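Why should sequence recovery work at all? Because a backbone constrains its sequence more than one might expect. Tight turns favour small or flexible residues, buried strands favour hydrophobic ones, and helices have their own preferences. The token representation captures these environments compactly. In the example below, the structure is given first.
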């Protein structure tokens, strides 16, 4: 009897001490091993800047001509911008670097964020190969004049162990010519859920790729032609150029922590297909503004839903600000595409080489009662 009473007492104590809430599941978000390339090869594994040996770059496997470079002025009048650190890997003709990741969840979606800068040719491309998928990311357009462009792609893990490869498919007269890779991180994408009263998934853009904390010019999200799985869950980048994912630490964000900047004018559009009921009326609301990054001038965001269009002007002083707009529309089928784009091109006030544009946030669609 005493044993039973003791067990009951212990069970009661455990219930009292237990948290009423289950701990949140852990999601992967980190740099690749030596993802900032700050652990150098041994001096004996370097021939000037060229890495000698397949496994000489710590934590990475290399193929072809790969250089270990430092940021700053270079011989021949070049300048290598490496804003997140001191060192980077430069991929020469048809060269590649690879790393094997373990502990992934098969079937889950992951995003890879990486810094990339072209160094020679106008048509440089980085090809990312992972889990049987391939993405060609053009880096010929410089969206940041300081060379701080960052990109993100996404993939579905086929197994718990995957190899990620960054490859330069180009062939130039100078065999060392090729893009720099200067920071690489991975993030597991959280499952999407509807917000009560909102038919738009991830309308506040809070689920997205990894953003670097020490330095950021935003993360460029390639169009769906290059990236079949969106690194911005729920959304389609349906344009010729990328849109930019921005964070509150480095930019003005109208709400919460993240937003989208439409940086490439009419070549930069973002869309989502939502569930609707034919002939029912809905109200689309959204917030536009500027990112407090010196982007100035008369901006405009055009919104499309059903058969309706709305043009929303916004005059930016480049100091941060926002306004709310709304559009009432009638659904014509059980699926409705909502689309946003900016018809104008913009640059920073004191930096005409830095492309920018209006900010989009807080997208909501709700039925008209």
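From this structural description, the recovered sequence reads:
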């Amino acid at each position: 009897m005493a044993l039973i009473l003791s067990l009951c007492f212990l069970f009661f104590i455990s219930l009292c001490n237990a948290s009423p809430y289950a701990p949140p599941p852990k999601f992967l978000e980190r740099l690749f091993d030596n993802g900032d390339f700050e652990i150098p090869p041994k001096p004996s594994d370097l021939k000037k800047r060229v890495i000698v040996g397949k496994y000489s770059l710590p934590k990475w496997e290399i193929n072809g001509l790969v250089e270990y470079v430092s940021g700053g002025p270079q011989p021949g009048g070049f300048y290598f911008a490496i804003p997140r650190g001191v060192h980077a890997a430069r991929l020469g003709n048809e060269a590649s670097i690879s790393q094997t990741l373990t502990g992934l969840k098969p079937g889950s979606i992951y995003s890879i964020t990486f810094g990339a800068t072209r160094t020679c040719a106008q048509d440089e491309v980085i090809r990312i190969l992972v889990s049987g998928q391939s993405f060609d990311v053009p880096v010929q357009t410089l969206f940041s004049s300081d060379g701080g462009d960052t990109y993100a792609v996404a993939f579905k893990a086929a197994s718990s162990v995957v190899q990620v490869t960054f490859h330069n498919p180009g062939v130039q007269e100078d065999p060392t010519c090729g893009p720099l890779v200067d920071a690489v991180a991975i993030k597991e994408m959280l499952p999407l859920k509807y917000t009560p009263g909102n038919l738009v998934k991830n309308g506040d853009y809070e689920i997205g790729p990894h953003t670097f904390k020490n330095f950021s010019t935003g993360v460029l999200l390639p169009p769906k032609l290059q990236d079949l799985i969106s690194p911005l869950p729920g959304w389609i980048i349906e344009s010729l150029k990328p849109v930019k994912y921005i964070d509150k630490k480095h930019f003005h964000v109208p709400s919460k922590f993240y937003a989208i900047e439409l940086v490439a004018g009419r070549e930069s559009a973002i869309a989502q297909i939502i569930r609707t009921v034919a002939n029912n009326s809905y109200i689309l609301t959204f917030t536009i503004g500027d990112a407090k990054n010196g982007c100035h001038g008369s901006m405009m965001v055009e919104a499309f839903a059903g058969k309706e269009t709305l043009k929303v002007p916004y005059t930016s002083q480049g100091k941060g600000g926002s306004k709310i707009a709304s559009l009432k529309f009638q659904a014509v089928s059980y699926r409705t595409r909502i689309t946003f784009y900016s018809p104008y091109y913009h640059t920073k006030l004191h930096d005409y080489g830095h492309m920018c544009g209006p900010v989009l946030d807080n997208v909501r669609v709700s039925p008209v009662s």
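A few observations help interpret the result. The first strand starts at residue 29 and ends at 31.
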